[in-house]
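Take a look at the protein record below and flag anything odd:
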Amino acid sequence: FALKWRAKGDCQSAELVISHGTPEFEYGGSAGPSRIGSFRTPFVGELSLGTVEILAPGYHAIVREGLFGIHVEVRALSGISGRKVLYPIFSGMAYVSALYTDMTPQLSAAPRTLVSLNKLRPG
């Protein structure tokens, strides 16, 4: 899958959008006729993680960086201390998640419609 930020209001990183596009391969070129020379995956947003609350203007902050990934933080408006969303983003991760601190999660499937959501277990 691929990830991309979607702006909402003055926050440029308000929602993390997830795409499961199908890769398109181009064969040939300097790699040889039967080898993949390049590929691209068209971005088609299918699901996004965000918050109900208004977020701080500007962009996200990378608060932790390692060899295989990063932790990205998006904060609430200034004056509301401690409220934030932390997105752990790692190479090869199986699913996208977020840790909400004193904020309300908001899932969106725009431009589609999210028909139902079932909670499988506490957490």
Remarks:
- The chain has no helices and ten strands.
